Amino acid sequence: MFSVTLYVALFALIVAAYLLAASIKILREYERAVVFTLGRFQQVKGPGLVLLIPLVQEMVRVDLRIQVIEIASQDVISRDNVSMKVDAVLYFNVVNAERAIIRVQQYLPATNMLAQTTLRSVLGQHDLDEMLSERKKLSTDVQSILDSQTETWGIKVSNVEIRTVELTENMVRAIAKQAEAERDRRAKIIHAEAEFQASQTLVNAAQILSSIPAAMQLRYLQTLAEIGAEQNSTIVFPMPIDIIKPFLELFEKPGKAAGANGAAARIPLIKEAPLGLTATNL
Q1: What is the pTM of this model?
Q2: How does 156-180 read in b/e, with b if 16+ C-beta sit within 10 Å?
Q3: Which terminus of the chain is more exposed, N or C, with fewer CB under 10 A?
């Protein structure tokens, strides 16, 4: 009799412990409980202490923290028919626990699969150059599309980061050649622009020197000073036309006077004399 009573008491203690554990739940600050009563949604409870009616009510825990999903490498064909592998990282969190449990069977794998298809769809609409240079814009486009589609599930997609764009070896070599050709083109353009600016500067300097004779003389003297500073065995002195011009005018005046007196035949001889005289003086 005593043993039967002991077994009954032990069984009652086990049942009481089970009912107590089933009726008392403690939720952390980042958790919410979706409570169902006889299979029908009742309310969302938490955080803190949550009391349930055993065998009548049940709950499903939902984590509200931001979750990180690594989107597996996807085979993508760009708009210009370039094959590549792209992977990304997805950041999202549950903002409505009721929708996340009731409207989708398992929101975590569902969001992951949707992110994979959206990534392939968005990247397939762009060229390779856009994928490499406008990665931030493409990530924003994928994030906005995912956010609009998962809103009905009570999920907020906060960010999508395209992590790696893997190309084939042939495409990598082609891009390297293209980059090298672009650098050569820019170098030639810069060199041509420098030549144009230098020639324009020389033209401006020549116009200034031709308009001011004194400036030309100063430039001539500066050139002589620069030549004299160097140790040269042979020095060539250029003779500006401005220095010879007065002597030519002196010889031309007697020639004009002789022509007026009928001695025009001697004019060529008079004009040839300055050249011989100048050569002798040099």
Answers
A1: 0.60
A2: bbeebebeebebeeeeeeeeeeeee
A3: N
